[in-house]
Amino acid sequence: MTATLPVPIEVPFPPVEPPAMTVHFPDVRKLGGDELAAVSRTMNPAMVLAAYRRGIFPWPVNPRIIPWVCPKERAVFALDREPAWSRSLRKTIKRGTFTVTFDQAFDRVIEACATYREGGTWITPQVMATYIELHRLGWTHSVECWSEDGELAGGLYGIAIDGAFAGESMFHRRTDASKVAFVHLVERLRERGFTMLDAQVRTDHLVSLGCEVIPRAEFLDRLEASHGAPRRLSG
What we know:
It is a single chain. By secondary structure, this protein is of the alpha+beta class. The protein has two domains: 29-72, no CATH class; 75-226, Aminopeptidase (3-Layer(aba) Sandwich). Helix content is 30%, strand content 23%. The protein contains seven helices and ten strands. It has helices spanning 45-52, 87-95, 106-115, 125-137, 177-191, 204-208, 216-226; strands at 36-40, 57-58, 66-69, 73-77, 99-102, 140-146, 152-161, 164-172, 196-200, 212-215. The strands form two sheets. The protein has a seven-stranded mixed β-sheet, with helices on both faces. The protein has a three-stranded antiparallel β-sheet with strand order 1-3-2, covered by helices on one side. Strand 8 (164-172), helix 5 (177-191) and strand 9 (196-200) form a beta-alpha-beta unit. The mean pLDDT is 91.
């Protein structure tokens, strides 16, 4: 049975800047051995964009407090060379097990990432609402993997700012679905001229996909080099 896919919303391009904010994040090059850059009780789209432009991202520990962090080491995926996917993953992609789309079910993807994450989630209701609003403004994007019966089998979401894409979270309900979404994301980023894929924090899963860890200073240099004109991810 062929999957019946949802009708996507129209994602603005170029993305729309939210109203300016008065809060300013610190220069993370001066954090030294610290990783915590700021703490807040609330968040909004403008705060998130300002943070990412400085290499900072939110990592809530509970619904009442939001730490904003910049790790001393950063997981990234190289976009300037041909990816070396595993043999088994290449076979899964070749079989066409999943239908892959972009920005057709952002709300469902972020909700699934919050629900299917082992050991709890940092995706609080406030985080979810903020990133959904960022999607409406054209900043955050999702990649969806659909099974043959039309079920959302896996996917990921993240935020695109100029030439950098920061992956936030991924999930799977069927084997290899999140990996296939990641492969299609990398292919799209390379095709559209993105220069950086920020995977944020190292995990064994990310390493298995080909992510590497670099020092904070090197990451910030790459991030600054990615600034410029926005790239269109979907559509």
